[in-house]
Design brief:
InterPro entries: SH3-like_dom_sf, SH3_domain, SH3TC1/SH3TC2, TPR-like_helical_dom_sf, TPR_rpt. Keywords: SH3 domain. By secondary structure, the chain is an alpha+beta fold. Among the domains are: 151 residues, no CATH class; 73 residues; 74 residues; 114 residues, Serine Threonine Protein Phosphatase 5, Tetratricopeptide repeat. The protein has 54 helices and 24 strands. The N terminus and C terminus are likely disordered.
Length: 1319
């Protein structure tokens, strides 16, 4: 592949030692990836495949975010943003697939970690288009549009942040060669001088280094076959040293007809300059062979008319001595002292642009377009008060003296603007339809209209010539006239219908012109005779009578007895003869005449209009390619593009215009062309071809060219806006100014700074408002306010800005301040605007201001004044019957009443607003209607009128679906999910709406919220508790996990793996549980966040801790993994929690000895923290453990310690119950284990007191029985024994217990009692 030094990407140039090191590392990394990619084709399946000839089939495209003129790498946050977007595309490649199809390549895979996209190609044409887009900067621009979000585009307006694309050209060259080998014959240049065995002449065929020929690879062991393009000779060689020509040459040479492609010999002229202007000297004598040639003698000074191009046989010259003009052979001259290499490819006086643009018209239409897209929302439409009061007081309290001064300056400047506006016209200055029309072609200039001639019937034998006098008189004259230009340029049909009248068909016209020709011949009127022959030849060619046309045209060349001075006539004759010779395969005549036509095309300005087909231009390009004449190639491409553009053949314009831009980039010169116009032309054609990404990229490249004017920038903006709207399928009504247009607006604003005329002031004003709205739309309110303040403080709206538009801009500024939690500033602005309005009458715009003033006052907490302002706005709406705004004002009153606590009044106003909205016939107000319905529904739900609330929510959702408002659908769906999840529980309905919410989030592309919604659905299915529901929950969890992986959210990813493991545990697939938990642990460890790792390890243990199966596995996570991390990170609370869980777990698993250590640690930590509740729990657990370990004295100690920590005043029954059980346990320990009936009786008495307080008869039965036993058998107190026995008998009778046993049972242990009765 050829070298491409000037592109938006790619070369690793060393600008500094640091940057050089970075680029070297990136290049090495890129190389390793490609080599590894080639080696590991089997493992990567189709990522790379190697064909038999060992040619790779995949190309790695490396992306990098860079900034500044030196293309230094962007910060890590920006690089991570790129990787995150690539991860999303890696999971869902629909968008990137569509883009790469437009870029004529095919996506294989995406490596988001290395920022590499792998692509492949199927034909060499795809490689040609892809490399062209890469070279002229479209690939990088398309990547930016795909990967950089709108907010980033706005935030980097002042910075040169872009995506740099790099490809390995060696790999691409191998892919290109492999495809050519598969396709068969291809064009290539010789790498060295070499000989071929000629199959046509019998000798050897010699090709020099750089010569281009057609080669065909060997077939079945034969050698390579070669076709020489200069003379058609054929030859063979076993292994020729050749290199395929670049893809554009490949395509062009294959598209050429054989008559153009093969023949005409090799240019033998050794003229030293390839593209010359000035004067040259004749080196030998030459006698003219016809009226078109110039006779010269040695030493004659020949002035080059136009350009002398060394690779062509002829050029147009003028004798300095005599002034004669004609064709001169290039081989007959040598340079003189005043000859120079041309700096551009255009002739003097030649039109240098592809189309003409009227700057005033573009400015006017752009201004109107911006007004149409930006004014309605702020100048005519009421704002619904959905602003939150949160942090408003905080914002107001942060004011400083500097802010007060700034606010004072702002008020002063606004007052100045309003005072100026009193003298301006209230009517807008610009009133057009707000669309930018297509420019006119540069050739569409007004030419003089030739006269119209009447065709008289030809009567045989009638020699009357008076009928021909007007025509012959018009055609007389040796020199060119403007009227002739129209005659030469018209096609045969237009010629027959517009210049000549009175004939019934073309046969009658041809007969008339034939008699006129004969009359001119007889009267020796040479120039009328010549021109009539030309007209007859043109008419015959139009009727496909090419042989007859050739006769007339050849006669036209032979008639003049002196030199041609009407060179356009000569060019027109040549241009008709050349395609006829080509069609009739008269190769010798074709080449001879094509060379002469080339000389005229390079010599006469605007001679291009004479051509009817492109055969001569393709011949020029072929010769330029074979001769390696870059400037001749550039001019040929320009002329081919302009020729096809003139004939409305947009598809055929594209290759040549793209090649011209590539040539300009490689040479780092424009050669007098206008790259901005060329990019714009390409963009418009791409748009017609339904290639919106390429069209937007063309528009951006056009605006960035050094030659770009304000008109070019505005035209680029209109083109980009149109195609961005097409890309996202916005209708004209839905289409607003997209954020991707912000760079154009910013550049246009910079271009008009310092301009003093009113039209620039108007344009600058509207651009600023549009930019401000874009910032606000992307939640960058601070930047939006800054833009508006700059507009107001620097110069303010000009006097040419209408009063309504001025007020609209100031109202917008007020809204921005409200959105920025500065309602006081907004109120000042609105009061100034209100004061400037006439007092004797109201206007609809006054209602807009009053409504917004109510929003500001409500935000400040002044509800009474806010209500007055809203009511005034309602009155104005009623006066003007403005139903849409009336509905909004009523809704604002309702929302105000809600905030004031007047619920019934609020319901009335909101209901009236809903009624007004529902009666509207025109669209555009659905978003406000939906918001009001949702607010009213919330009100009903809070009032427990759930059916009404559900009705409002469902109405809002149906309306949002009907008008396709995704944000409103999301909001309504969330309300319904919440309703069925909390207020009116219905799991099935909640799941249905949650699933719809996921579908909507998928449409919006908000992957983060989609993942959260999927997690919520998973939890809903888990709550159902069936195995089928668990399986569904697992599917949603895995989908959410995939999103977390794509977004690079490591913490959510870890929890996703863990949640999947938990569900597998629920469905008893134990073989997968450990695997998923281990992956979750690995992901958590990769974050390096100790606290997060600790939380996840604890959550992993909780899976088994909260289960009835495999509970012992929780010990591993708590004790062996989480607890060491908690100790190392000094996370005391986590240690306490883990020790408590371990104690509880080991207690349930009967690991009493091991549990004591953790219970003691929990006690120590609780005492250190002063946490009395956990201290009490720890004492109780220690007491329970020592009880089970039969260390009864310690158990008694810790139980008593626990009781000392309990509150003295018992507030709840649970506390009393706890006292009863603990004292009973203590009594059992003393009685059964320590054999002390006396102390045991004391604990039983205390337990009985608590049980009596609690009223628990069963506990009283047990305790009375124990006391009766002790007093009867051990303490021998018959009275107390009888008392407690009788009490026990009474409780037994009530509880239907048949027998009471008071026999001594001290052989039992308290532990057995504990198992029976619990603690």
């Amino acid at each position: 592949m050829s070298s491409r030094p000037d592109r938006d990407t790619g070369r690793y140039r060393r600008k500094s030692s640091t940057e050089g090191q970075h680029r070297e590392e990136k290049s090495l990394r890129h190389g390793r990836i490609v080599r590894g990619f080639s080696r590991d084709s089997a493992s990567l399946k189709r990522t790379v495949s190697i064909c038999e000839e060992n040619f790779p089939t995949a190309l790695p495209v490396l992306l990098d975010v860079v900034g500044g003129p030196e293309s230094l790498p962007a910060d890590e946050q920006t690089q991570e943003m790129l990787r995150g977007k690539l991860r999303i595309l890696q999971a869902d490649s629909t968008e990137v697939n569509a883009l790469f199809m437009e870029l004529s390549t095919h996506l294989i895979s995406i490596n988001s970690e290395e920022n590499i996209i792998f692509v492949t190609f199927k034909t060499f044409e795809e490689i040609w288009k892809f490399t062209t887009y890469y070279t002229i900067g479209f690939l990088g621009r398309c990547m930016e549009d795909l990967l950089l979000d709108q907010r980033f585009c706005l935030s980097s307006l002042e910075e040169d942040i872009r995506i740099q694309v790099s490809i390995q050209e060696e790999t691409l060259s191998l892919i290109y060669k492999g495809i050519l080998m598969q396709e068969g014959s291809f064009f290539a240049s010789c790498s060295t001088n070499q000989m071929f065995d000629s199959s046509t002449s019998g000798g050897d065929l010699y090709l020099e280094q750089g010569d281009i020929a057609q080669f065909e690879p060997p077939f079945l062991g034969s050698g390579w076959t070669m076709l020489c393009l200069t003379d058609g000779g054929r030859g063979t060689a076993p292994r020729p040293a050749v290199k395929p020509v670049i893809p554009f040459y490949q395509w062009f040479l294959k598209s050429c007809a054989e008559g153009i492609l093969v023949g005409d010999g090799k240019p033998s002229c050794d003229f030293p300059l390839q593209f010359a202007r000035g004067t040259c000297l004749a080196t030998m004598e030459y006698d003219a062979g016809g009226p078109d040639e110039l006779s010269v003698a040695p030493g004659d000074r020949i002035i080059i008319v136009g350009l002398l191009v060394s690779c062509f046989e002829w050029f147009t010259g003028r004798k300095e001595a005599t002034g004669e003009v004609g064709l001169v052979k290039t081989s007959l001259v040598e340079p003189s002292t005043d000859i120079t290499q041309s700096e551009d490819i255009f002739l003097d006086g030649e039109e240098r642009t592809l189309f003409s643009v009227q700057e005033d018209k573009v400015l006017e239409e752009t201004t109107a377009l911006l007004q149409k897209k930006s004014q309605y929302d702020t100048g005519q439409k009421y704002k619904l008060d959905t602003m939150s009061c949160q942090d408003s007081e905080k914002k107001k309290s942060l004011g400083t003296s500097s802010k007060v001064d700034a606010q004072t300056d702002l008020k002063r400047n606004i007052q100045r603007i309003l005072d100026q506006g009193k003298h301006s016209s209230p009517d807008p200055v610009v009133t057009v339809n707000g669309t930018l029309k297509e420019p006119h072609l540069a050739t569409e200039s007004k030419n003089p209209i030739p006269p119209c001639f009447t065709v008289h019937p030809v009567v045989e034998g009638n020699t009357n010539t008076e009928n021909f006098i007007p025509l012959l008189s018009f055609l007389e004259g040796r020199d060119y006239r403007a009227e002739f230009g129209v005659l030469y340029g018209l096609g045969s049909e237009l010629l027959a219908s517009s210049i000549f009248t009175g004939h019934s068909d073309e046969d009658e016209l041809i007969a008339f012109l034939g008699v006129a020709r004969e009359t001119a011949r007889k009267k020796r009127l040479y120039w009328p005779h010549t021109r009539l022959c030309f007209l007859l030849g043109k008419l015959c060619a139009g009727r496909l009578k090419f042989s007859q046309a050739r006769v007339y045209l050849e006669e036209a060349l032979s008639v003049p007895r002196e030199g041609f001075t009407d060179l356009r006539l000569l060019a027109s004759i040549y241009s008709r003869l050349v395609p006829i010779y080509l069609l009739q395969k008269n190769t010798e005549s074709f080449f001879a005449l094509a060379e002469r036509l080339v000389a005229l095309l390079f010599g006469i300005p605007d001679c291009l209009a004479c051509l009817e087909d492109n055969s001569a231009l393709k011949y020029i390009l072929k010769k330029a390619v074979l001769s390696h004449n870059q400037m001749a190639e550039a001019r040929a491409c320009y002329q081919l593009a302009k020729h096809h553009l003139t004939h409305a053949e947009g598809l055929r314009v594209v290759p040549y215009l793209e090649r011209l831009l590539v040539l300009s980039g490689e040479a780092q010169r424009t050669w007098g062309t206008s790259p901005s116009q060329e990019y714009l032309t390409l963009g418009r054609i791409y748009s017609e071809l339904q290639l919106p990404h390429l069209s937007v990229s063309s528009a951006r490249r056009a605006s960035l060219q050094p030659s770009a004017t304000l008109t070019d920038c505005l035209s680029s903006m209109a083109l980009a806006m149109d195609n961005v709207n097409k890309l996202y399928e916005f209708t004209e009504q839905e289409a607003s100014i997209p954020s991707k247009v912000a760079p154009y607006l910013h550049q246009a604003l910079s271009s008009i700074q310092g301009e003093g005329s009113d039209r620039y002031h108007v344009l600058g004003h509207r651009i600023t408002v549009c930019l401000s709205q874009l910032f606000c739309k992307n939640s960058m309110v601070g930047q939006a306010i800054c833009r508006m303040h700059t507009l107001i403080n620097n110069n303010g709206p000009s006097l040419c800005i209408s009063v309504p538009e001025r007020n609209s801009a100031l109202t917008w500024l007020a809204w921005l301040h409200i959105d920025n939690h500065q309602p006081d500033v907004a109120l000042d602005v609105l009061d100034l605007v209100l004061a400037s309005m006439p007092e004797h009458c109201t206007t609809p715009q006054e209602g807009v201001v009053l409504n917004m003033r109510g929003v500001a006052l409500r935000y400040m907490g002044d509800l009474r004044r806010a209500a007055e302002s809203y009511q005034a706005a309602v009155d104005i709406c009623q006066e003007y019957e403005d139903m849409p705004n009336w509905a909004v004002a009523q809704a604002n009153l309702g929302l105000l009443c809600l905030k004031a606590g007047a619920k019934r009044l609020a319901q009335r106003h909101l209901t009236e607003a809903v009624q007004l909205f529902s009666e509207l016939e025109e669209g555009g107000h659905e978003a406000d209607f939906i918001t009001v319905l949702l607010e009213l529904g919330q009100h009903y739900v809070k009032q427990q009128e759930l059916d009404f609330g559900k009705g409002c929510y469902e109405w809002a959702l149906l309306l949002a679906i009907n008008v396709n408002l995704l944000d409103c659908q999301l909001s309504a769906t969330r309300h319904l999910s919440l309703l069925y999840g909390c207020e009116s529980p219905d799991q099935a309905q909640c799941i249905v709406y949650s699933q719809h919410q996921v579908a909507l989030l998928q449409s919006t592309g908000d992957r983060g919220q989609e993942g959260e919604a999927l997690e919520a659905i998973s939890q809903l299915f888990l709550n159902l508790g069936t195995e089928r529901a668990y399986r569904a929950a697992l599917d949603y969890t895995k989908t959410s996990l995939g999103i977390s992986i794509d977004l690079g959210c490591r913490e959510k990813e870890a929890y996703g793996w863990l949640q999947a493991g938990r569900i597998y545990h629920l469905v008893n697939q134990t073989e997968l549980v450990d695997l998923y938990i281990q992956v979750a642990q690995d992901v958590a460890l990769s974050t390096g966040d100790t606290q997060f790792i600790l939380k996840l390890l604890e959550a992993a243990g909780d899976i088994f801790f909260n289960s009835s199966r495999d509970r012992d596995k929780a010990i591993t996570f708590y004790r062996d993994r989480a607890l060491p991390v908690a100790v190392k990170s000094n996370s005391v609370r986590s240690r306490l929690r883990l020790c408590n869980k371990l104690t509880e777990l080991m207690l349930s698993l009967k690991l009493y000895g091991e549990a004591v250590e953790f219970a003691q640690t929990a006690l120590d930590i609780s005492i250190t923290l002063g946490d009395s509740l956990n201290e009490r729990v720890a004492h109780h657990r220690l007491a329970s453990l020592f009880h089970r370990l039969e260390q009864f004295e310690l158990a008694e100690h810790y139980y008593l310690k626990t009781l000392t920590l309990c509150p003295t005043l018992l507030m709840f029954d649970e506390e009393t119950l706890y006292y009863a059980r603990v004292y009973q346990t203590l009594g059992d320990i003393i009685f059964y284990d320590l054999k002390d009936p006396h102390d045991a009786a004391g604990y039983y008495h205390l337990a009985l007191a608590a049980a009596m307080d609690l009223g628990n008869k069963r506990s009283q039965l047990q305790l009375c029985t124990r006391l009766a036993t002790i007093y009867h058998n051990f303490l021998t107190d018959r009275e107390l024994s009888l008392f407690f026995y009788q009490k026990a008998r009474a409780f037994a009778a009530e509880l239907n217990v048949r027998r009471i046993n008071i026999s001594p049972d001290q052989q039992l242990s308290s532990a057995s009692q504990y198992k029976i009765n619990g603690p």
